[in-house]
Design a protein that fits this description.
By secondary structure, the chain is of the alpha+beta class. Helix content is 20%, strand content 29%. The chain is built from 3 helices and 7 strands. Pfam families: Fer2.
Length: 107
């Protein structure tokens, strides 16, 4: 099974993402942290990242958190993107209110 290197500009980390695997799942399996994790299904918007370089395929994401113009700028949810090439990513900081909500939400 082919894999792709994901380089994280925010943390300086890198990890391998298998073909057909979401960036978030690969990040978690590698023990890396970059973004908070919520629903893992593209609905909460917690795991937003920016793709700086590379090609990827998108799964369904909430348009409230990721409108089409955001995808055009490379802003996507790590749980719903799948690399087609090696990627360079940046973590997108969430507002403090989102972190507080995550602390009080039981997953």
């Amino acid at each position: 099974m082919a894999g792709f290197q994901v380089n994280n500009r925010t943390t300086g980390d890198h990890f391998l993402c298998q073909e057909g695997q979401s960036v978030l799942k690969a990040m978690e399996q590698a023990g890396k942290k970059c973004v908070p994790v919520g629903c893992r299904g593209g609905g909460c918007g917690f795991c937003k990242i920016r793709i700086v370089e590379g090609d990827f395929e998108c799964g369904k994401m909430s348009k409230a958190h990721v409108p089409p113009e955001a995808i055009d700028k490379g802003e996507v949810l790590a749980c719903r993107i799948y690399p087609l090439t090696d990627l360079t990513i940046e973590c997108v900081p969430l507002p403090e209110a989102a972190f507080e909500k995550q602390k009080t939400t039981k997953v």
